[in-house]
Amino acid sequence: MFKKFFSALVIVSLFFTQFTAVSAQEDDSLSRVEERGHLIAAISGTLYPSGYYNEDNELVGYNIDIIREVADRLGLEVEFMEMGVDGMLTSVKSGQVDLVAEGVQPTAEREKDFLIGEPIKYSFTSIVVRLSDNSGIESIEDFAGKKAAGGATTNYMQVAAQLGAELVTYDNATNDQYFLDVANGRTDFIPNDYYLQKTSIDFFSDLGVKLGNVFYNPSFSAFVYNNESNALQEAIDAVLVEMKEDGTLAEISAQYFNGDDVSVEQEEINGIKISDLPVIELED
């Protein structure tokens, strides 16, 4: 009896050992990148100040500098593939890119289909409206019937549609194009990340738009990976934690967000108490 039990135990042990070994061999996401010598990262290249081209035609920005520093600490280079937001998740799912470096908000659906990395930015949703009349929007109840501008599959646009807005979608448009369309009435508002909008409006201060007094949905954004790329995600996350602890993320944030540190969760931002903001859940 004991001998049979012991034999069964050995078989089970061998099975799990072999299964673990096979699983480890199957996840070659990190070793594949190391052999190649560079990461392939999806980025829009049009979103100031996350990733954009400066006056010297150099690709720079908060997310750009972060992933370059991560790659450097891992002994790698970075190749950026520029595309619209709507194509990024498809590209990482198909293996065309190693990660989405644009900074994506997690949802229950995305967490089922992808690996969500260590947070790189904490924020909430705000809106850009016309300077002259606030686009007629004083609260989220006023979204109904208004034209919202953005990428078709973003959380921001899905929530706006759920609140009754008409969606006007763009494929990898620049900040100034978005702002000019609001100013001239083609669209009414742009729902997006507070820090991105605040910094962009400061930069494009003469385009006839402003930050509306409507804030909701506290959230964080992160790099996103294929759901079989555990090894790569863990390696990059470890470096991001290191960069938080040594102050590198705070330094990069201050450079691009006018001194603000977006890499840590705040209780209050510019007088806005985060815990008081409304949360609009996406419906299934």
Determine the structural class based on helices, strands and strand pairing: alpha/beta
Count of alpha/pi helices? 10
Number of domains: 2
Please give the share of residues in helix. 25-40%
Average pLDDT, all residues: 90
**What about the largest sheet?**
7 strands, mixed
What's the number of extended β-strand segments? 13
What is the distance, rounded to the nearest whole angstrom, between the alpha carbons of the first and last residues?
Answer: 54 Å
Organism: Ruoffia tabacinasalis
Domain Solute-binding protein family 3/N-terminal: 38-260
InterPro entries: Solute-binding_3/MltF_N
Protein name: Transporter substrate-binding domain-containing protein
Overall description:
This protein is α/β, with parallel strands linked by helices and 284 residues long. The chain has 2 domains: 132 residues, Periplasmic binding protein-like II (D-Maltodextrin-Binding Protein, domain 2, 3-Layer(aba) Sandwich), CATH 3.40.190.10; 94 residues, D-Maltodextrin-Binding Protein, domain 2 (3-Layer(aba) Sandwich), CATH 3.40.190. It contains 10 helices and 13 strands. The strands form 4 sheets. Strands 1, 4, 5, 6, 9, 10 and 11 form a 7-stranded mixed beta sheet that branches. Helix 2 crosses helix 9 and helix 3 crosses helix 9. The longest helix has 25 residues. The N and C termini lie far apart (54 Å). 38% of the residues are buried. The N terminus is likely disordered. Pfam families: SBP_bac_3. This is Transporter substrate-binding domain-containing protein. Keywords: Signal. It comes from Ruoffia tabacinasalis.
